[in-house]
């Protein structure tokens, strides 16, 4: 079918999250609630932190969707009410399926808090199909050296989820989702095959167009990314098959009906999500 055209261009806006850290958010906005199956995209930093300045997202609940944390620089430490704990370093990814519900904490690594340093990463929210919203919470975590790369002339593609060329990323998804980190030298380009029926997004976070999200029309089966600037370009490429299911959303709960949201709030308030043991 050929190359897909850009349907919309969205500039990320800045806002505070968690305990007071700044993010750049291209969506959701008052005009754009979600890009099915994607619910939210936040870029954390890049920021050079002074000692004692690092902030995170202390204990908070999730139900009905997945959170994806991908670090570029710095590290975060996490723990939850199901007894999981770990660390996500530079180039690492955590794909958390909140499912039926979990209390989660995501905080800067201790050395960032005490010594300061550079912090840069992403959090993506991916909706779960209705059939999977009450599945048991679980994690997929991969270090940088566990994420395969594809190298082309002037281009490097890190394949987190989905398939690029002959390479498939390590993350197993509940519905078809692709997540690639593309790096392009000045003047380089790369073509990413994406089925026309899938939502296709490219967020630029380095080089020309920094902080811009491009949303593609369903008029082709590939997306071409060109770095026409003078600096290296960095791009997060997201694609997914739309679920076409009703969405009821309230803060950290994403379900299919308002009644399910009310139940989630009640379950959280009555302690059904448990507590983080410390």
- Principal-axes geometry comes out as globular
Can you count the helices? 2
Q: Kindly identify the CATH topology.
A: Jelly Rolls
Proportion of residues in extended strands: over 45%
Order of helices and strands: EEEEEEEEEEHEEEEEEEEEEEEEEH
Query: Would you identify the CATH H-level superfamily?
Result: Jelly Rolls
How many beta-strand segments? 24
Structural class: mainly beta
Helical content (DSSP H or I, runs of 4+)? under 10%
User: How many discrete structural domains?
Assistant: 1
Record keyword descriptors for this entry:
single chain, 278 residues, mainly beta, Jelly Rolls, seven-stranded antiparallel beta sheet, 24 strands
Notes on the structure:
- The protein is mainly beta and 278 residues long.
- The protein has one domain (6-269): Jelly Rolls.
- It has two helices and 24 strands.
- The strands form six sheets. The chain has a seven-stranded antiparallel beta sheet, with no helix packed on it.
- A hairpin with a 2-residue loop joins strand 23 (248-250) and strand 24.
- The radius of gyration is 18 Å and the shape is globular.
- It starts with 5 loop residues before the first strand and ends in a 9-residue tail after the last helix.
